[in-house]
Design a protein that fits this description.
This protein is mostly helical and 75 residues long. It contains two helices and two strands. The protein starts with 9 loop residues before the first strand and ends with a helix.
């Protein structure tokens, strides 16, 4: 991360020194990116549909994807 210049630093001898505000800002940026990624992965939940039905639909979808992968890797 330092070699990629994602975070500013200066050298003192062989050591790299980072400014605390820069580290805290970087941490906040990373957290925001992580939360955005988690939100993007979230499934849309229809409140009017029973949770059991939604879970069954997700299970069927996962099985369909797994079957496609198996046929693709076999062929």
């Amino acid at each position: 991360m330092l070699d990629e210049r994602k975070l500013a630093y200066h050298r003192v001898g062989k050591h790299r020194r980072l400014a605390l505000p820069d580290v805290l800002e970087y941490r906040e940026r990373r957290r925001s990116q992580q939360h955005a990624a988690i939100d993007a992965l979230g499934a849309d939940v229809d409140e009017s549909v029973d949770i059991g039905e939604q879970l069954d639909a997700l299970k069927r979808a996962r099985k369909a994807v797994a079957a496609k992968r198996r046929t693709a890797s076999a062929g």
